[in-house]
Amino acid sequence: xxxxxxRALLLDMDGLLYHGDRPLxxxxxxxxxxxxxxHVFVTNNPIRTPEQIADAxxxxxxxxxxxxxxxxxxxxxxxWLAQWRENFRYFCVGAGSLxxxxxxxxxxxxxxxxxxxxxxGPGLDFEQLTIGINxxxxxxxxxxxxxxxxxxxxxxxxxxxxxxxxxxxxxxxAAATGVTPTFVGKPEPLLYEMAxxxxxxxxxxxxxxxxxxxxxxxxxxxxxxxxxxVRSGQYPPGRPWPTALPQPDYxxxxxxxxMNALDRDHPGLLSPERDRS
Length: 277
Ligand SMILES: [Mg+2]
Prior knowledge:
alpha/beta; binds magnesium ion; five-stranded parallel sheet; Rossmann fold
């Protein structure tokens, strides 16, 4: 089914390596064993910058990745919009790094925006919804969302909570205007393509590891990548595979099971084990 062996990895982050501010079992071992394997992290989370994400991993006691190896959906959205239109004007709704990422390639303009960009996090209110709807209906602004996730995992007061994702936050704009949004994050190809270009690796020689069948795995499979689901996040052990989606190459309950399978099938892809702590 695959004509090439995997020689590089793309890794999701939340639900695979950590949950909230806690590392998941096997994450430290995997990141340590990636020291000599080409790899890039791809996250649909548009809120934190790569530097903030790298610092958060370091604070959890995990090896701190180089920020240039982390591609967020906010960065991918900015890149996509810059290719779509030079010096675009935008109105954006979303917390964290999204506005800064867009500002590098476009201009904020809530009266004459060419595009309404929806991210994640707190901030959406009646006024913003009204501005966005009218930009779309009166000015023909395009509706773009950083990522299609209906919901995402969060932690509040030490407890797991479900938060609205980019797919949920863009929905009221789509409902009010009848316009279909353009999504940038996984499972759309752009985030993967940016990462593959950074790795200088064809899709068929790269393994995508993630915790969501509908985004991480579905998007990678469409590009012809190797795929591994780890059931440590959104998709728990024992839940039947969604029949509408293609099966991944690896379906593992945790990262240790995945590392064992990769050592068996693709020896040398991960660095040898030196420290089993
Ligand atoms: Mg995830």
